[in-house]
Amino acid sequence: MSEVIDRLIVADTGAGHSSQEATEAKRVVSTVYNMLATSWDLVQMWNWGYDDPKLHQEIEEIIPGYNRFGSDGLCEQLYYYTLRQVPRKLSDYRGKRVLEVGSGIGGGLNFLSRVLDGAELRGVDLSKTAVARANARHARGKTLSYTVGDAEDIPFDDGSFDVVINLESCHNYPHLDRFLAEVARVLKPGGHFSMVDLFNDLHTVNFNQAKSTNTQLEWLSETDISPQVSKAVRQRMAPGSHLRETFAKQKAPLLHRIIGEPCWTAAFGALFTGDASTSAVAKFARKIGGLSSLDKAPIRSYRHYLATRVS
């Protein structure tokens, strides 16, 4: 399984792999996230995070204490940032429909449902286990629900949504051109697509190529948010952080800690910021943990993109 994951990121599946390779890639990704979804109580974090004091204060005014119960608030800030790049006031979302592609266990979209009064939010994810968990924990009638589906074949009607978001997910998609075409299809004319992702060299090339071949999305902005994401990652790597305290409470055997720490720190961005060990032992641990691709094809930047659906 780790070899397939390596091919996903090192070769970047957006390059146009065969149907068989794409199917296998999706199977592996789904299997990995099915496993993760069963054990995500370990730590309530869904992305690398974002740290901006002004953004934190803005969220705090809407949801006092949003980062005081089982969260460090950094994942929420990334979701809020992604949403706020859409040129629409929060008060204007009443009666509007928002879709997250790659919604995982649902925590991020659930957070946004507390910010967007009167909006209808839908999540779609390839992992059946993640979707089941998201619905069990967060679904609230027409306000919020989650559906099993493929980012390259989104199971909603044409022109169904006012806004589509995608966070730290599209680097897993075998065909980026199909994903962007599906985003355009489900958006209403004039609707917006806001996304963030981590980019290695090949993912950058393939994403730009997919953008250039899509005639239904007009790209409005591209922003490198590496500084804010790096700041969040470094907070989590610091001694005594919420993340480190969570893992310390496991009291895992020494061997598990030796193998586990290089994996979870890499998974939460420590290689990107230079805060992860590059020793032979750490690289071996990441290899057996299915994360050696992060050593082979390092992440160069973390960026936000905004587009609108042309009429």
TrEMBL record:
Q: Where is the Methyltransferase type domain?
A: 99-194
Q: Which CDD domains does the protein's record reference?
A: AdoMet_MTases (cd02440)
Picking any one GO molecular function of the record gives: S-adenosylmethionine-dependent methyltransferase activity
Has keyword RNA-binding? no
Which InterPro entries is this protein grouped with? Erg6_SMT_methyltransf (IPR050447), Methyltransf_11 (IPR013216), SAM-dependent_MTases_sf (IPR029063)
Sorted alphabetically, which keywords does the UniProt record give? Answer: Methyltransferase, Transferase
For biological process, the GO terms are: methylation
Name of this protein: Methyltransferase domain-containing protein
Its lineage reads: Bacteria, Bacillati, Actinomycetota, Actinomycetes, Pseudonocardiales
